[in-house]
Design brief:
The radius of gyration is 15 Å and the shape is flat. The protein is α+β, with helices and mostly antiparallel strands. 20% of the residues lie in helices and 35% in strands. The protein has two helices and five strands, in the order βαββββα.
């Protein structure tokens, strides 16, 4: 897995990942939406237009609880899409570190 942030040390404050899927970006977004709408879903969030944000439900969330931001884009030269993920704290917590 290559990263455009190669100047960063091997330990990272915000873990990232990327994975290729045989599904199109639109199919991934639709599956995420369906999963988020299901009764008893383990996470809450939004999914639309090539982006998704997944969070722990408010009733069990703490200020240190992580969230997952996903960017989903179709591959140019083949069927499928690239999903990039970034784990991190909520934006209001992250600003305390900056």
């Amino acid at each position: 897995m290559s990263s455009s942030a190669s100047h960063l040390p091997s330990y990272r404050i915000l873990p990232r990942f990327q994975v290729e899927s045989p599904l199109t970006a639109e199919e991934v977004i639709e599956r995420l939406k369906k999963g988020l709408e299901e009764e008893g879903a383990k996470v809450v969030g939004v999914a639309k237009h090539g982006y998704a944000a997944l969070k722990i439900p408010p009733e069990i969330r703490h200020y240190w609880s992580p969230q997952l931001s996903l960017s989903i884009e179709n591959l140019e030269d083949q069927k499928g899409c690239l999903i990039r993920g970034l784990y991190g704290p909520a934006p209001n917590v992250w600003t305390l570190f900056i």
